[in-house]
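Field log, afternoon session.

UNIT: design team B
ACTIVITY: writing a sequence onto a fixed backbone
BACKBONE:
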């Protein structure tokens, strides 16, 4: 059975790392955030901390092939994209990492460097594992001709191309004054009978962040298996076909 790839983004301190503690066991955690999930490491049977993309790919590849592991989490995934973006912007790093002084030419190799990290995630998904990646959010803005700045809403500080491999993307919010938390559904694939499997908003009860992963899985149910991992359009089409076949079988 094919697994799932989640992304959960939100502001620092909203409880993203705690949600990871509710993934199916045994869990593995790759930690890149010094202020993130280290205090929760006892909840993970496998734990590694690194900020090296080469080491991260090696660790994730080992975990993808480890039959003992049910879930793999990366907290925070966005660090890797931020790293290559900084390398592109810095003159010395751009020449060292991408062998070019041209910023525009460096973006291609930079994107490929991050995409190479997708391979073990997709292998883990095909092995039936749960994968969850976290990111922080920031306010996207746009400056108009009259110099006024318009807020465009929250955006995850990770690469847009990651969306191609995501099955579920949730954004976590927190109201610090009221001490309330909730998810908003950014993406959920596949949909059932062309209706969303997840509501637009999912409230997170106080002290129950660690239970939310399983609750979201229960809302989604068992997604139709697809061999088209990594191809969003093909996977959507495969899911619709699988559900149509299941519906035909139920009528017989």
């Amino acid at each position: 059975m094919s697994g799932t790839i989640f992304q959960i983004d939100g502001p620092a301190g909203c409880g993203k790392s705690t949600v990871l503690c509710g993934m199916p066991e045994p869990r593995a955690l790759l930690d890149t955030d010094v202020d993130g999930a280290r205090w929760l490491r006892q909840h993970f049977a496998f734990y590694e901390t690194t900020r090296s993309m080469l080491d991260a790919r090696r660790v994730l590849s080992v975990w993808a092939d480890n039959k003992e592991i049910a879930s793999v989490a990366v907290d925070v995934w966005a660090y890797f994209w931020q790293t290559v973006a900084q390398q592109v912007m810095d003159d010395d790093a751009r020449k060292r990492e991408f062998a070019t002084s041209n910023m525009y030419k460096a973006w291609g190799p930079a994107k490929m460097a991050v995409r190479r990290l997708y391979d073990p995630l997709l292998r883990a998904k095909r092995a039936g594992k749960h994968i969850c990646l976290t990111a922080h959010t920031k306010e996207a803005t746009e400056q108009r001709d009259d110099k006024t700045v318009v807020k465009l809403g929250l955006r995850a500080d990770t690469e847009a191309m990651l969306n191609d491999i995501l099955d579920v993307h949730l954004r976590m919010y927190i109201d610090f004054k009221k001490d309330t938390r909730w998810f908003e559904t950014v993406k959920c694939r596949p949909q059932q009978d062309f209706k969303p499997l997840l509501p637009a908003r999912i409230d997170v009860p106080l002290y129950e962040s660690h239970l939310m992963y399983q609750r979201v899985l229960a809302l989604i149910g068992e997604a139709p298996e697809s061999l088209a991992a990594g191809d969003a359009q093909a996977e959507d089409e495969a899911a619709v076909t699988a559900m149509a076949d299941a519906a035909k079988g139920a009528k017989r």
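LOG NOTE: The helical segments are 16-20, 53-65, 78-89, 91-98, 103-115, 118-126, 212-220, 232-251.
NEXT ACTIVITY: expression trials, pending approval
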